[in-house]
Each structure stands twice: as C-alpha cells, then as structure tokens.
Amino acid sequence: MKILVIQIKMIGDVLTSSILFEALRKEFPEAELHYMIYEHTYPVVQNNPNIDKFIFTDKDRSLRNLIQMTKKEKYHAVIDVYSNLKTALITGFSGAKFRIAYNKKYTRPLCTHLFSRNIQAQTNAGAAIEKRMRMLSPLSPNFPLEIKPKIFLTEEEKNHAKKKLEKADIDLFSTLYMIGALGSSEKKTYPLPYLAELLDEIVRRTDANLLFNYVPSQKTDIENIYQLCQSETQERIHLDIYGKSLREFLALTSHCDALIGNEGGAVNMAKALDIPTFAIFSPPLNKENWNMYEDGKKNVSVHLKDYQPELFKSKTFKELSKDNTELYNKLKPSLFTDKLQHFLKQNSK
C-alpha cells in the first residue's frame, strides 16, 4: 500500500505536515509513504525515518508531468494538505481510492473526503496540528488527536555546531539564545527599535550570549539591529556565528536555551527540536492557528490582540494587512515585558 502526502508550501508547513508520517507509520507499518514538497524545504524533514520517498517539485515542473507520475505510482491514498487548484488536480486524477483534501469549490468534484480548515482546537497542540491529523480519519479510526513535529539531526551535525560555538569562545554552560530577528517578510518583522529594546532587556536580565538567525543578504538589517542595541548588549551578540545552511542553523539552535523572535518557520523548527520559544506574531496573523503547544512556560507567544482586542473586531485579514505597520507600532515591548521576564526566568541557566 502506497500513500502520498502533498504539502507544496513553505518550511513551517512542510515540517508541521510531517507529523502525518509518524501517525501513518504506526498505523500502517508496512505502507510505503511518499512526501511531495519543494526541494528547498527538504532540510526540515531530512533523515525522517517515517518517510520512504521524497518527490521534489517546483513551480516550473509541469502539472501534466506530476499527474502522470502520481497515476503511475498507483497510490491507495493521496492526502492533499495544501489543497490549491494544482494539487487538487494532482489528487483528483491520481486514481487513489482515498483522495483527501480541504473543502474548497475546486476540491469537491475531485476528492472523496473533504475537511474544513476552520476548527476549534481541543488540545494545546493547536489548530494547525489537529486539522492535519483529522485528515487521516478516513483511513482509520485509530489515529491520535495530535502529534508533535520532530526534526532529526545527526550526532555529527550537533557536534560540528558545538565545536563552532566553542571555537568562538561561547560558554555552553552559560545561557545562549537564538534570536529570530527578521520575519519571512518586512510585514512579519517586529519593528527593529522595539526588538533592540527587547534584546537589551534579555541581556540585562540573563547576561546571555545571543546568536542571530539570518542569511548573508539580510546582514544590513541585522547590523542595524546591532547598532540600535546598548553597548552591553552588543558585547553579547555574535554576528559571525550563524547557520550557513538550514541544517547548520538547526544544529546551532539545538544547543540554545531558547529561540526568541518573530513567529515563523524558525519558531516551528525550534519547537520540533524541543527548544523553548518566545514568539511575536504580526498583527494580521491568526495566533490561534499557529501557537502550537503553547503552555505559558516553555512555549509562549504574544500578539497585539492579546492586549488591545478592540482593534481587531470585525476586521478582515486584508484590512489588518493594510494597517500592519500602524498596528505593529502599538505592540510596544512594555506591553509584554512581564511575560518575557517570566519566560527568561524559566529558560535560562
């Protein structure tokens, strides 16, 4: 029996949807499990023992080619977690007995089982986890309500990162934080002066060493944050230590006491490494959908809606996106300093 899961989206989504493979492997240990993803997202699922085959695609690969390939595999089930028009056609023409997707006008005539994206989470795993797990229910009644995503690093990768930190004279017996300084876009990035204020508070409270998650093309913005920080904070920032690949970032993060910064893929990856997280949501995002495993201690998040809910009444995502800058500027560090201090107390050496 072959089963295909389709998640042609970003890194955080690909990682989150990988939970389906752990569940499928436990329920169907002899099944052959395939994952269709963009190739650049592969590092977050690399070495996952529950996935037998990866099918890499990109925007240039033709739809006809993907449909033909999928039909040739003769899947028993295709689970289309992405559920856009392209993947709906791949799923619909796959010939699989079970063609599972989210309920949309173009998936209805093509799929055998449809699910709403809008659910009320029953556990602190959150809606993003539970709505994915629910997609497995047509295959068996035995699947759990939630499973936590996991990243599989090798000992060699972790040791290499440890040596890199030690070479930079970073004491691993002292507190070390990874800072998610920049979001996936400018609109998802907490105002840099506010972030610098938070970094000053973190160093003042913990005397921690700070690593930044960034790529070389973002160095100008990173240096701007550095310049906004107080001199005592600058002494604790190690700009030359960063992940030169996604796997190296993951290995470095595995040695940190927490990841603090903008909500996004890096936060989801840290959670999958069992590293505590403090996430700052941009105003248009639905916190309830992505605050996975939030417990107020190990995983914490903040959103302007937590403090000024009246600003979000009857507002659409489009309206919130238009007012993003104005709303972000209202999320001043002073609003959640107590919450941050509590988190630091729980997650520092």
TrEMBL record:
Gene Ontology cellular-component terms listed: cytosol
InterPro entries named in the record: Glyco_trans_9, LPS_LOS_Heptosyltrfase
SUPFAM superfamilies in the cross-refs: UDP-Glycosyltransferase/glycogen phosphorylase (SSF53756)
The keyword Glycosyltransferase is assigned to this record: yes
Pfam families cross-referenced by the UniProt entry: Glyco_transf_9
GO terms assigned for molecular function: ADP-heptose-lipopolysaccharide heptosyltransferase activity
Gene Ontology biological process: lipopolysaccharide core region biosynthetic process
Tagged with keyword Manganese: no
Keyword annotations from UniProtKB, A to Z: Glycosyltransferase, Transferase
Protein name: Heptosyltransferase-2
Species in which this protein is naturally found: Christiangramia gaetbulicola
